[in-house]
Task: structure prediction
Amino acid sequence: MEALYLLIPFSALLVLAILAIFAWALRGGQFDDLEREGERILEMPLDAHQPATDAAPQQSSSLHRGGG
Result:
């Protein structure tokens, strides 16, 4: 029973801290535009993360065009 005298105030402080962090995130604009980040990933060019190895196939195709 004596533990409740300690746990109830700690749980109330924890709830208040969680509410304060949530309010801070709301004021900071964390939840303003949920769609933008998903669209930004889709708009990223595909070859931005790939090494530049496309030069060899382009050279071979230009040899075929010029040699014929």
In short: The mean pLDDT is 77.
